[in-house]
Automatic annotation (TrEMBL):
It comes from Saccharothrix australiensis. This is D-alanyl-D-alanine carboxypeptidase-like protein. Residues 98-201 form the D-alanyl-D-alanine carboxypeptidase-like core domain. Residues 1-16 have a biased composition (Polar residues). GO terms for biological process: proteolysis. Residues 1-29 are annotated as: Disordered. Pfam families: VanY (PF02557). Keywords: Carboxypeptidase, Hydrolase, Membrane, Protease, Transmembrane, Transmembrane helix. GO terms for molecular function: carboxypeptidase activity. InterPro entries: DD-CPase-like, VanY-like_core_dom, Zn_M74/Hedgehog-like. SUPFAM superfamilies: Hedgehog/DD-peptidase (SSF55166). It comes from the Bacteria.
Length: 220
């Protein structure tokens, strides 16, 4: 990859009857009003979710168990940029937004471990949506001349681990080298010989070790 946000659950607890309701065996007028109020809130929340769905900013599916809208990870965008990397201002250090939750936690553990060893890891690129990846790929095609050559460095969206929220690009290269030698214990492995900065997360790597590196992203 070249170096160059989910709705809270609407948890409705069991309705608590007032002392009068319990003694009479039914809800009071105030209780009925409360129920109506709760129903109105739920209707408005549903309408808001539908409205967000219609904007196209984030593609939504529906959680089959909870029935609430959830974002499809491939469509969740990552930051377009970030502040300058504090140890090498040629790169940025963006927020790790949009990564799959377990990957985000693993990234935070990796960064903490590196920091304890005096190593600063800058997240030069992390999560990308399908649209962001498509733009990256189109730019690479323009730069390298053909889709085949471009794919050695930037995969199309359907194949990208950045889109799936599983990959990060770490800079500067000295920091990336530290991750290459130490990251597998936390599930991070460098995957491509031609991309010293690109790492992917899989919890199995922590026990099985890193798989053999591929020459490029198109070699798999």
């Amino acid at each position: 990859m070249p170096n160059s946000s989910s709705h809270p659950a609407d948890n409705l607890s069991a309705r608590n009857l007032s002392a009068r309701d319990r003694s009479t065996g039914g809800p009071s007028t105030g209780g009925r009003r409360a129920v109506i109020g709760v129903l109105l809130v739920l209707v408005l929340a549903t309408a808001a979710a539908v409205a967000l769905h219609a904007t196209g900013r984030v593609t939504l599916a529906y959680d089959r168990q909870a029935g609430r809208p959830v974002a499809i990870l491939d469509e969740v965008p990552g930051p377009e940029t970030g502040p300058a990397c504090p140890i090498d201002q040629r790169y940025v250090d963006e927020q790790a937004e949009g990564l799959r939750p377990d990957v985000l936690a693993a990234w935070q553990r990796l960064r903490t471990e590196a920091g304890a060893r005096g190593v600063t890891l800058c997240l030069n690129d992390g999560k990308r949506s399908v649209g962001q990846q498509q733009r990256e790929f189109a730019d690479a095609v323009q730069r390298f001349g053909t889709a085949e050559l471009a794919a050695r460095y930037v995969l199309p969206p359907e194949k990208s681990m950045h889109v799936k929220g599983l990959a990060v690009d770490i800079q500067p290269l000295e920091s990336a080298a530290w991750v290459e030698h130490n990251g597998n214990a936390l599930g991070w492995c460098r995957r491509y010989q031609n991309e010293e900065w690109h790492f992917e997360y899989d919890p199995a790597y922590a026990t099985s070790g890193c798989p053999a590196m591929l020459p490029s992203a198109t070699s798999g």
